[in-house]
Design a protein that fits this description.
homodimer, about 450 residues, alpha+beta, Aminopeptidase, 2 domains, 15 helices, about 35% helix, about 20% strand
Chain lengths: ~450, ~450
């Protein structure tokens, strides 16, 4: 029989060990987007594999995919009548650049105050370790109240290109009653939350080509067009002064929010958004609060752009090429494929004949909504309230978790988003951190959730 | 007594040696803008110093400046009644990037057909070597008909920031009757030319800052502004659809061209510009030919820009910063300082309050016109006609040669622009080249010019 009190006592007694293991996992620079880190990816995968083996999991394997491998492992000894949970996580992290803005090294974790700084600390090695340590706390003292499977992928930060095929090929292996997804965050250290909606993603690279090669701006400036200026004009035209996206048909399938839905949203004040982002002033679609704009309204952002000479000093080049990475966050019922058509139509209509252009879809994911009135959400609510002492809020997240759509489509199960990151954790940015009190509360919450969900 | 025929014969006999020396000079990667090449800059300077010492020049020295050194040397044995020519050149070259577009290594010269490919071949080590070899041909067989001084700087490609101070401090040393400037080109291999006007330059870096650091586009997208989009909007607004620059007051001081001036310009057909640039279609200010737009009309170009993540793959970052290098080519009587005011006023008026911005002036030079009806221009005409068999055309150049304005202001002498580059030499671009027949005709032209100018 699972013993809650013994597990909680074990977790408390082993805080120092848990932290040490967390640090060793963070030291592996498992950057999925950079080919140089192939070996680190395997190192991170094996780190998890060893944990599951230590706990006595069965069928533990680093399984190949078309890209980085997936770690699988299962503990099915709770019996046929107990529910089966699939814990989803990703062991890959974002590239750390710009490196010069990190206070400590991204892969040399450093504790400053209550925070642990390292790339991947919050997104999402912290959540993976928290769940592993919840499992360890139960198994070291009694047993698990649920059957448990792990699906830890290595390509979330590059849009999970091989996860769909992997789940399709391993449907039986992955069959479950619920996907527990740790890749999420709460609003503040004292405000536990469950995420009930996610935005989708449509990420593109646009390449504009002018002359055949770079030219001298003195010899040719004025005679031929400048692809960087052309790209700027194209990007400038994608958003109006009221923050509305002007791609033709972009808003056509946006499901309107009801007054009730808008009213019950936990909207943080402008000051909170300014503090969290470090922006001196906010900006976005007129008629919506910053929280709405960042969670339930679609957006368009330039994620990167480059053209010509960007080194120190002055080079008088008239560039031949210009490139921009542009992505849209999507809300129900927008679809990445339809959004690509909108962008293509916009470029066809607006790109001048002085350049040629290419559009490449890089990563896509539909938006998702999860069922609020379910046993999983109720169990999570009880677990969170027991640990935090307050009822959780139901939040809509602005980010994208590709696996949620895949798990719904391919395994037919809902995902419960239950993670413990914070909005100021600097995800995808320099000085990413994990709030250590939250890391410890996360372990306790996962222990309690498994027990609540089994009853 | 100077002996023309003997000098020409010497040049003909030593073609192979001259080429070998040219190659050895090209192998020195004297990139002035990159701090890593400090040593190469000295190597290139010493290469020239040794040549002048070999010819028996006096006062040969590599002279320090606030930046890269200047090479000086003089041959004053033509006597008090002979004119004194100051030969100006620069031994620095542009950075070679993007490296992947070079067919052969930029600093491993390669001859393909009639062309010699290497960074700096045409801009302008080829012209320096051609003049040195003209001097060698005369001195090895007889003597020079003129007094000659060399002023070879190492900072032309970064806007000659220390040349003004150097000339000011060495006014007596550099006193002369004419500055012969080899940093120019002709229109086609069979079309010799003398340049009579140059455009000026105003080069800026604009830096736009949004949030304090890079943000996750899922968490913050929609709530805060995107500095890359802001920069694109600012750049997009600098040029209208007719190719006119929209900065307030930009055209205020442009001296109108008379009908006669426009009529006598050698305007190359559209097809020529398309072939030279490799652009499938031309674009520029409405109402002017491509040649006019590239030589006697001012322009605005983006020379480079960067923001966010520009590596392979997709990173969903909302960048904190965006930067663009923007430069204007100026015509009489525009002035860089006034143009900076135009740009500043534009940014003040148009930049939104969601970002902060900085404007840095990087390199500036006023436009220049040289005297057409002078003994120098007549001598050059005769020399060019003797070598090419056709009369030269008088051309207006679109590029910028900062020293021309300095020499006029500080030494009170005109500059004769007499160089042998070609429009398709890929200056400042991958696969820069020198047309070798032109290199040899250049040597003969310089020999003949010195004789013509002395008579």
């Amino acid at each position: 029989m699972p013993d809650l009190e013994a597990a909680l006592a074990y977790a408390k007694d082993h805080q120092a060990d848990f932290l040490e293991e967390f640090l060793s996992f963070l030291r592996v620079p498992s950057i999925s987007t950079l080919p140089d880190h192939q070996e680190d990816m395997h190192k991170a995968a094996n780190w998890i594999k060893k944990q599951l083996e230590r706990f006595g999991f069965d069928s533990v394997a680093v399984m190949p995919t078309g890209g980085h491998p997936v770690i699988y492992g299962e503990w099915m000894k709770a019996g046929k009548d107990a529910p089966t949970i699939l814990f989803y996580g990703h062991y890959d992290v974002q590239p750390p650049d710009p490196l010069e803005l990190w206070i400590s090294e991204p892969f040399e974790p450093q504790i400053r105050g209550e925070n642990l700084f390292a790339r991947g600390a919050s997104d999402m090695k912290g959540q993976i370790v928290a769940h592993l340590k919840a499992v360890e706390s139960l198994l070291s003292t009694s047993s698990l109240p649920v059957n448990l499977k792990y699906l830890i992928e290595g390509e979330e930060e590059i849009g999970s290109p091989n996860l769909g095929a992997f789940i399709t090929e391993n449907k039986n292996l992955l069959s479950c009653d619920l996907c527990l997804n740790g890749d999420s965050s709460i609003l503040a250290p004292d405000m536990p939350a469950i995420s009930i909606s996610l935005r989708g993603l449509a990420y593109f690279e646009i390449r504009v080509q002018g002359a055949a090669g770079d030219l001298h701006s003195g010899t040719f400036g004025g005679a031929v067009d400048n692809p960087a200026i052309v790209l700027c004009k194209l990007i400038a035209g994608m958003r109006d002064d009221l923050g509305r996206i002007t791609l033709p048909g972009f808003y056509d399938h946006v499901r309107p929010l009801s007054k009730t839905e808008r009213a019950e949203m936990v909207s943080m004040p402008d000051e909170w958004w300014m503090e969290q982002s470090g922006a001196a002033m906010l900006f976005g679609e007129q008629g919506y609060s910053p929280t709405e704009r960042a969670t339930v309204r679609p957006t368009l952002d330039v994620n990167g752009m480059v053209s010509g000479f960007i080194g120190e000093g002055s080079k008088t080049v008239l560039p031949a090429q210009a490139m921009a990475k542009i992505s849209m966050r999507l809300v129900p019922d927008q679809h990445p494929e339809r959004i690509k058509n909108c962008l293509e139509e916009y470029l066809r209509t607006n790109a001048p004949p002085t350049v040629t252009w290419e559009l490449e879809a890089m990563a896509t994911c539909p938006p998702a909504i999860v069922e609020r009135d379910s046993s999983a959400v109720h169990a999570a609510s009880r677990a969170l309230e027991a640990v935090w002492g307050v009822k959780p809020v139901f939040q809509r997240q602005g980010g994208t978790v590709p696996v949620v759509g895949l798990v719904q489509d391919l395994l037919g199960v809902d995902s419960l988003m239950l993670g413990f990151g914070l909005p100021d954790d600097n995800l995808h940015a320099p000085n990413e951190k994990m709030h250590l009190p939250n890391f410890r509360r996360g372990i306790e919450t996962y222990i309690r959730f498994m027990l609540e969900f089994s009853s």
